[in-house]
From TrEMBL:
Keywords: Aminoacyl-tRNA synthetase, ATP-binding, Cytoplasm, Ligase, Nucleotide-binding, Protein biosynthesis. Residues 149-371 form the Methionyl/Leucyl tRNA synthetase domain. It is found in: Cytoplasm. This is Methionine--tRNA ligase. One of its GO terms (molecular function) is methionine-tRNA ligase activity.
Amino acid sequence: MNLVNKTQKTFALTTPLYYVNDVPHIGSAYTTIAADVVARFQKLLGHEVLLITGTDEHGQKIQRTAENLGKNPQDFCDEIVPSFVSLWELLNIQYDRFSRTTAPRHGAIVKEFFERVWKSGDIYQGQQQGWYCVSCEEFKEERELLEGRRCPIHTNKEVEWRDEKNYFFRLSKYQNKLTEFYQLKPDFIQPETRRNEVLSFVNQGLQDFSISRVNLDWGFPVPTDPNHTLYVWFDALLGYVTALLEPDAEPTLANALEKWWPINLHLIGKDILRFHAVYWPAMLLSAGLPLPNRVFGHGFLTKDGQKMGKSLGNTLDPVELVKRYGSDAVRYYFLKEIEFGKDGDFNENRFINVLNADLANDLGNLLNRTLNMVKKYCAENNVPPISKEAISDENPLKTIGLRLGEQVKQAYEQLAFNQACESILLLVQTSNKFIDEQAPWSLYKQGQQQEVEKVLYAVLESVRLAAYLLSPIIPNISSDIYQQLGFGINFNDRIQSSLNAPFATHATWGLLSGNQQLGKAQPIFKRIEPPKND
Ligand code: MSP
């Protein structure tokens, strides 16, 4: 297969394809928010971006859930899928493709891929015996199980014994190739702790895994033996490939892989690391295809220390959260408060405190008080006519501001969203302190107009830079700030942000032009009143 060399200018990334056994919860929203932030950041860099998300609809878990509700599985999936689509809209997710594994064109891609792997001689029939967790859709080692043969991830679910004829994929054959690959591409699995987990798993010796099921019909038939149904994970991972097809393209591998392959980044939770970092590259090697660039496994959102999940029934409703607090608030909290890669607990008081402190007080008040001072102390409602050269290099805002773009860029590239936020907030907090120390109201009384204008310019420019750099995380608030600063840029406008706003220009302190007409000062984030405890 001839794969066109990927240009530097494209960036394709994926969220997992979510199981539709229930409506989405905050854990699914977490990965998708992070993916949207990465996609928006890549657009700021001027790259052409493809963000893939979607749903994983086959397998026993979905079939059983549908049966328990007395529904046909396809109807059941069709009922659940819109709840994902509408949540992504509520959360302001700019996805490009929504891949459903029950789509007929996905069947064509799976069949073609299976045939390539079959031709490589990597599929054979054998007897599968073992403990299966239907919630994970995965066989478990006996030693991994909790007391009462419960799954370590779905701690309220017992695993089930299976003893059946299955088709196997020859994973063991790829032991050396994978080990070489991990060495050659040390950044393939991130963060480091996850990479170590995978290396130690692989070093223990890889076992072939079964890729078909009997006594299950909710899935694609094995192309060479219709008495078997393809294992849901074999089918699901290929959903990423199907998603790459242009909407009207014929569903062939060649068409799917033409523009965007290999995927730049798979964003996943840590529970599905093995599938993405071991099984998936081995399947691709078998099919003779290039491997993805990077897999990042983030941590779990917990409630009272336990993984939040549909199977455990201890979830937080993201719809309610967004309706109550707005999409920017939810996006900001999860990315600022939890180190991406580590687990993080949700606590409503903390949520309210962080948003009030950072968005309402630090950022919101800064903009508001500065705009009001411009109105009061400057002749017109314009940005003071100061050039960045006129501001001393000793000015603390200029000093931080000039370094910030590069720092934040690196943080986003490493998916260290919390660090990006912290660095930006430092500029915001320093700006508040700077106003208090410089006291433009006194300078004004003393008739030091130029000094007043320098202070106000430096602060407005710092707010602008903060808004720009935060725009992947809080696009609505950043757009409002840009409007109030007199720019016509809306960060939710895909074309505007990708083409007209090259990162190097906007991320440099000093862009704001003197005399630009300012907009009307309005609060950008309304303080949240903590709920009253009766
Ligand atoms: N269908 C598979 C993925 C197939 S990808 C080809 C699947 N789906 S899932 O709906 O169960 O989980 C999807 C993602 O949500 C996973 O990355 C998982 O880690 C993430 N989360 C589920 N619960 C989570 C938390 N409580 N916290 C953070 N993320 C969690 O697995």
